[in-house]
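Good morning N.,

You mentioned wanting to compare the apo and holo forms, so I went ahead and generated the holo version with NAI. This is what I fed in:
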Amino acid sequence: MREPGVRNDYHSLLNLHHSMLLRRSMRGGPVPKSQDGQAVALLDAWPQRLTDQRLLRESLALVEPFSDTAMDLYTTLFRDGPHLRPLFPSSLVAQRDHLVSSMLRLIGDLDKPEVIVPFLEQLGQAHRRLGVRAIHFEPFGAALLEALRTRGGIAWRTEHDQAWQRTYRFVTQVMSNAAQAALATPAYVSAAVVHHQQISSNLAILRVRPAQPYAYQAGQYATLESPYLPNTWRCYSMANPPSEDGLLEFHVRATGAGQLSDVLVNKVNVGDELRLGPARGSMTLAPTPGNGVLLIAGGTGLAAVRALLGELALRPSPPPTWLFFGARTWGELYDLETLEAYNARHPWLRLVLAIDEGVAYPYESGTVVDVVARRGSWAGHDAYLCGPSAMVTAMKGRLAELGVQPDRIWHD
Ligand SMILES: NC(=O)C1=CN([C@@H]2O[C@H](COP(=O)(O)OP(=O)(O)OC[C@H]3O[C@@H](n4cnc5c(N)ncnc54)[C@H](O)[C@@H]3O)[C@@H](O)[C@H]2O)C=CC1
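and this is what came out, ligand included:
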């Protein structure tokens, strides 16, 4: 293990290098602005991409369980480069799961450049927040290959190795190009917590004031990090549309001890600082002329839906809108005062509240999916869904059966 001072020197040098690139970009130096042409060139330079996809799929069977291989990768990486350890969260479990799901997604979609390039570009930009730079890709790649070869054993073939090497080169080039193109925009802004309301033991509403103007649209989400849990970033939707006071509201459910959500609900308080990554997500309002709007929220998925509702209320003549909000129990239906105030003020809005089991008038009984479906056809509506992924998947299927055109359904 090296001394903390050595680590700090290492990271200071990297920061210096980063500032130099930034200055060069501001002077109009050779820092790429658009990545589209670069990505096309990288794809053209990789003619055996589909064969490599087949080889990667085949190789996965040799290194099962892949989550263990990923953990071997981190062991090798920190053995050879202990100075890299501070770039990662103290618990590697979520990090490993994220890596595994990103790699499986990458392999599954290698034949779809229109999906994979934006995915990698976003990943490249997101890694800036963690202090990851192009220089770190080489030791990571070496550790990845060592982990694959060791686990693959005698069944590991040269073809598998080469396919992984070509893929990794493509991935890191797209990621570094995207990170460089984003150099002039901050990787994150700090934000002060100005309001923390504990709704229940595992649910809180936070309001934060970013230290500088923060651009986003209603329906988008941001990644958050707290100094109480360094290097762990999680996504939360802004629950309000952009407002003049610049405040952002987040709804957070604690899902497990030691997770960021737990820290945000149970530890963070007014006056604490958070870090806020750039806004992401495509679930923004794009009303089809003449259509009604269907807003559907499950649990804290209410956040994004409430921002969309706030945005609709700012428009001169909002379309007829239904808002369905479902929670497991009566006690978990939160933020009702705000929703009921909107409902009372706006004749174009109809609010329906649902709880999974039991009947508690005026709430409807059943999952939000069942309660929406119970009303019959939803033809002529644009639908916006936010909540647990099982709810979103089930709702998408039901809405398609109930007359909503698939391209008129939004979710993130
Ligand atoms: N906090 C935030 O800003 C955001 C949260 N989310 C996601 O929303 C989810 C909220 O979680 P919880 O509040 O714990 O919700 P939950 O698990 O308590 O479920 C809320 C409601 O969703 C419906 N639902 C859940 N599973 C369903 C299924 N399999 N089929 C049909 N309906 C189902 C039910 O009506 C249920 O009462 C999380 O997965 C979170 O990732 C999504 C976007 C933003």
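The first strand starts at residue 189 and ends at 200.

Happy to go through it together on a call whenever suits you.

Best,
F.
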